[in-house]
Design a protein that fits this description.
single chain; about 325 residues; alpha/beta; Rossmann fold; 2 domains; 7-stranded parallel sheet; 5-stranded parallel sheet; 9 helices; 12 strands; oxidoreductase; NAD binding
Length: about 325
């Protein structure tokens, strides 16, 4: 059996795989797809496979995506060949929840102002700091990541309102609303945070009227996918003072162009799609892949975290 990694894990992680599966031929090659035609399984971040690659992969039966998003994959080509796709849903919750909390606390406790004062050698105590306790957060997408963010926010005394398609209950949410009714809770939100995936339903989901419904000092955070908000709508909300701050980890165009207005805006934090980064990322991905590979070898062709390519998650 041939397993192709299109990224290169650390040496100790490669050794872990080879020791666990001596009968498997592993290839760890950064974006080198020359062995794709013979690969039975491909492990990828999901951004480097084309329809032509899938067509050339004569033996490919399973793609394990070491990410949650699959929007950049050639869906039709994969579906045509009935290739099984799974991902590593759940491994992002700890680093992303910590990133969300770090950004919120940083803004509430005026850390950007304090750091800037230090750089300028200014003893300036006019921080305008506020407290996180007693605030309200609306979380778009209270799944594994959103619920973990909710858990941490609740520990700081924050009221959490979850928003999903159904409006059904989710963990660590004090209230729930459906996406179609989200406008009803936006005026109460001090924080609006999205971890939604990129699907047909979420594409440009938030409109101008949603930002107009938010508090003028609200913090909007997008840690999900950049196409949740049309770029000009986001810019307009910030330039017109419809919200107080935006923390953006994802963008419609990545990398963000050097001449984009966000870079120079005082009410924007540009985070270059790093909220899920962690030294434990690949280790956690392998913790999912290894049991699935054992099952696959023994004949169970239904790995955990299967992805519905039609729904997009």
């Amino acid at each position: 059996m041939d397993v192709l990694f299109t990224f290169v894990p650390r040496e100790n992680q490669q050794e872990r795989l080879q020791a666990e599966f001596p009968e498997v031929n592993f290839r760890f090659l950064y974006k080198d797809k020359s062995f794709l035609p013979t690969a039975d399984i491909v492990v990828t971040y999901g951004e480097d496979l084309t329809a032509e690659d899938i067509e050339s992969a004569e033996n490919l039966k399973w793609i394990m995506v070491a990410s949650a998003g699959i929007e950049k994959m050639p869906h039709a080509a994969i579906a045509k060949k009935e290739i099984i796709v799974s991902n590593v849903k759940g491994i992002h919750k700890t680093p992303m929840a910590e990133s969300a909390l770090a950004h919120v606390l940083s803004l509430k406790r005026s850390l950007p102002f304090i750091y800037e004062s230090q750089r300028n050698r200014e003893w300036n105590r006019k921080t305008k700091s506020s407290e996180l306790a007693g605030s309200t957060a609306v979380l778009l997408g209270p799944g594994a990541i959103g619920s973990e963010i909710g858990r941490l926010l609740q520990a700081f005394g924050v009221k959490t309102i979850g928003c999903n398609r159904s409006g059904n209950d989710a963990e660590y949410m004090d209230e729930m609303v459906s996406i179609e009714n989200v406008s009803a809770v936006l005026p109460d939100a001090d924080i609006v945070l999205s971890v939604l995936p990129s699907t047909k339903e979420t594409y440009h989901l938030l409109k101008k009227e949603h930002f107009q419904a938010m508090k003028e000092d609200a913090i909007f955070m997008n840690l999900g996918r950049g196409d949740l908000v049309e770029d000009q709508v986001m810019l307009g909300a910030l330039e017109n003072g419809e919200i107080g701050y935006a923390v953006l980890d994802v963008f419609e165009e990545e990398p963000l162009p050097a001449d984009h207005p966000y870079w120079k805006m005082d009410n924007v934090i540009v985070s270059p799609h790093v909220s899920s980064h962690s030294g434990k990322y690949v280790e956690r991905a392998l913790d999912i892949f290894i049991p699935n590979l054992h099952d696959w070898i023994e004949g169970d062709k239904s790995p955990s975290n299967p992805v519905d390519m039609k729904r997009g998650y």
